[in-house]
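Below is a filled-in request sheet from our internal design queue. Each sheet records the structural input a requester submitted and the sequence that came back. We keep these sheets so that new team members can see what a complete request looks like end to end.

REQUESTER: design group, bay 2
PRIORITY: normal
MODE: inverse folding
CHAIN LENGTH: 243
BACKBONE (tokenized):
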């Protein structure tokens, strides 16, 4: 069953057509890797899935609900179920790690302070961030900022996670840490879309790949099948670096 369905999605900024006729779906529990060159509009699609951008035409359905028809109050309910992991972490500079992660629970649940603390501390442990709860974002490495952003995104136990370049700018060791966390979250049955230039990460964590180019999405097929064809993977790498 499809958790995400995008149909005939069209988006323009001024006279520039970003997406012409985008169509794809993501099944429940699946991780779709969305590849494409710089400026292809990958992040525009992610933002549109939670109503931060509005398409000029087309449908975006999350678990059967067309988010393009929702007002802002209804979109808040969708955003509780669909987590967005921003490329730069998007942490609140003046808040500690603990307060950053706890923020969604404080804003959108009726959990007690004790219940919030228990969930935050267990999440810190899951992301190997024990002892960092009193630090400010400026005191964290790039890799830790990414992990805190990811921890905050999943604290509400979402049905869907949207990853926007989660390994961008990271060294190989931190890249592997983020890959491992995504695989761990995937094992819980969450549905996800991974926007990335990092083909290695996409192949490691995704079930299926799609390529965004010239305003359209091309379904590239299952990662398991692509792994059997090194030439196709090389061609895909070259194609993705073309812009």
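RETURNED SEQUENCE:
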């Amino acid at each position: 069953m499809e958790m995400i369905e995008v149909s005939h999605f069209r988006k323009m900024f001024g006279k520039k057509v970003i997406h012409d006729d985008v169509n794809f779906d993501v099944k429940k529990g699946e991780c779709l890797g969305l590849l494409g060159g710089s400026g292809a509009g990958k992040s525009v699609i992610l933002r549109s899935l939670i109503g931060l951008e509005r398409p000029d035409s087309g449908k975006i359905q999350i678990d059967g609900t067309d988010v393009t028809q929702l007002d802002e109050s209804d979109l808040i309910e969708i955003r509780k179920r669909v987590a967005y992991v921003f490329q730069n972490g998007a942490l609140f500079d003046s808040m500690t790690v603990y307060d950053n992660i706890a923020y969604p629970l404080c804003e959108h649940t009726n959990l007690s302070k004790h219940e919030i603390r228990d969930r935050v501390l267990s999440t810190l442990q899951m992301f190997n961030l024990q002892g960092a709860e009193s630090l400010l974002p400026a005191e964290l490495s790039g890799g830790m900022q990414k992990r805190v952003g990811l921890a905050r995104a999943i604290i509400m136990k979402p049905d869907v996670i949207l990853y926007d370049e989660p390994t961008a700018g990271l060294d190989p060791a931190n890249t592997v840490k983020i890959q491992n966390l995504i695989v761990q979250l995937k094992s819980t049955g969450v549905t996800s879309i991974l926007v990335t230039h990092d083909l290695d990460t996409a192949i490691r964590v995704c079930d299926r790949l799609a390529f965004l180019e010239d305003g359209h999405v091309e379904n590239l097929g299952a990662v398991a099948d692509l792994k059997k064809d090194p030439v196709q993977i090389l061609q895909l790498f070259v194609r993705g670096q073309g812009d």
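SHEET NOTES:
- The CA atoms of residues 96 and 134 lie 5 Å apart.
- The chain has one domain: 2-90+159-240.
FILED BY: M.R.
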